[in-house]
Amino acid sequence: xxxxxxxxxxxxxxxxxxxxxxxxxxxxxxxxxxxxxxxxxxxxxxxxxxxxxxxxxxxxxxxxxxxxxxxxxxxxxxxxxxxxxxxxxxxxxxxxxxxxxxxxxxxxxxxxxxxxxxxxxxxxxxxxxxxxxxxxxxxxxxxxxxxxxxxxxxxxxxxxxxxxxxxxxxxxxxxxxxxxxxxxxxxxxxxxxxxxxxxxxxxxxxxxxxxxxxxxxxxxxxxxxxxxxxxxxxxxxxxxxxxxxxxxxxxxxxxxxxxxxxxxxxxxxxxxxxxxxxxxxxxxxxxxxxxxxxxxxxxxxxxxxxxxxxxxxxxxxxxxxxxxxxxxxxxxxxxxxxxxxxxxxxxxxxxxxxxxxxxxxxxxxxxxxxxxxxxxxxxxxxxxxxxxxxxxxxxxxxxxxxxxxxxxxxxxxxxxxxxxxxxxxxxxxxxxxxxxxxxxxxxxxxxxxxxxxxxxxxxxxxxxxxxxxxxxxxxxxxxxxxxxxxxxxxxxxxxxxxxxxxxxxxxxxxxxxxxxxxxxxxxxxxxxxxxxxxxxxxxxxxxxxxxxxxxxxxxxxxxxxxxxxxxxxxxxxxxxxxxxxxxxxxxxxxxxxxxxxxxxxxxxxxxxxxxxxxxxxxxxxxxxxxxxxxxxxxxxxxxxxxxxxxxxxxxxxxxxxxxxxxxxxxxxxxxxxxxxxxxxxxxxxxxxxxxxxxxxxxxxxxxxxxxxxxxxxxxxxxxxxxxxxxxxxxxxxxxxxxxxxxxxxxxxxxxxxxxxxxxx
Length: 760
Hints:
- The protein is an alpha+beta fold.
- Helices cover 26% and strands 24% of the residues.
- The chain contains 19 helices and 30 strands.
- The strands form eight sheets. It has a seven-stranded mixed β-sheet.
- The radius of gyration is 27 Å and the shape is globular.
């Protein structure tokens, strides 16, 4: 039997609710200097000079840094090294930093920053990704094209599939730029140590990519930079490239001045400079047979990558792999293009290319169902993946439990979907509001898949008093990853969670285990922890098996003891002491390597991910007939998480993801005018309020995954990625109107009740 886990436990709860947790801005060091960024009010311009003399002479200013002060590489990147630490040859978007002012106080640095003058030659800006594809104006001349990347899926013969179809539907969809809106803006502290190492603290999601960016900028070996894991106030995918570059600029100042330096961003700087969720333009064509089966799909996806590559190729790859949602489609032709523009940079955000495509697919499915004379539920049942199904990339789903039907049925039952569907207004009601209910479902590839090397390390070190110190390569983003790891470790060893301490790791204490993205924290980090705990158990069992009168494999761990034959047992501490007496170390290190995957970039075929998760969400709402105001009445989500390590934290991931998805559906949009963001604060960027959020129900489905040592899979992103299409379908059932762009803002006049499904 697997070990039992606490229902709701966090190792950091007390410190956070009492305000004792030290975030990066809380850190204080002697002789600390303060750095602030300086921008130019240009979107695309040739950079001739950055004049810093007046700023450098301002009170309190110690130095003003520009690109010419960078001793190493000024250009960095996860995939393509095109992101500028400082703008050098050109301004490519309104968030490019031209200088950093370092002063004794932050206020002095901010004041002096206004004195920096930038000499530029304005260039024509390309702000439309379709126009950018013509390459008439190049964002990066050295590349010779604005095309960042392409991906494709080629399966079967789509034209034959369309000929077999009883009907073909096609629509165009658009999604906007979205801000991550983490409460803690970018912040970094760099400390030059006596041993020549630069110690970096910061609000970042991946200490190791931060170390690479910092070392590249400083032109020093990687061991000369130590990035220390620091509590962070939210990320949602947004604290990688930008946060690492902020750390690099801060480290450069610390190196040149020999003093600790802190950079703490204002909200306006953060929104202006940081990368966003990609806006998508999607043309989607679907063929459906008389029996209500999808015969073919053809789609073209254009993603606005903004001024720099960031992780656009990885984001758009996931969109490509999942471009047909959780449905069996025999004939598929998909082309995906990532494109440079002079807009704000785009990169990783919770869902990573899935929210955009689920908004498309789950509406197309319902439009097709109505044309076929079927309910949306029946259409899904006929087309969804099942055990042994083959995906559009040729992957057979037979190595784990395919629970698509299970999560769908759970939601239908919990919200009483089919009865409520019959009450929908469809644009006609004698009451003041229209009523609607809608749902969406998805499958999602777990972890990185063919996007990158996927492994994670964990180290366990038992102390002389029998307590355990855990080092882990997965970074804690504030979501409770450390707690899950402690629970897994304690459960395997038969200890209480408070007997295990998760040590805040640094890049000098644990191998690089990849970034905390792609909902991989629990499955990858937890896998490493479980393997390390099992290795430690083998050591302990071998040391005490003779005393317990059994074979090492027969030793059982539980209740803080090791149990053998005929009631013989030892305390965990006694077993540890036995290991020491045998001159062994009660220590273990393990690496969990994700099972192999495969990918053919030319055809878009292969086993893209080693396992998948399945989810379904429904929402019911009311729309005011006179104003179009949407009132959310309730939402239900069911997701197969593999195994819930901490059900309380799992439920929290449900609720947080659902609220973010509701914001994507109805409220949020980064607005740009001529390439400049106009809503650069949270009072003008419309996030969901508490009064916007309905009662939410989380249905945790568990089918432990055989590829995961802990049995757990993922939940961080799936609940976020299908709220928008569920809301879109509910709005249609309420008003009779489809919405093909986000955010959705229904308004009268309403279409006639007999209007055709899917008409704009």
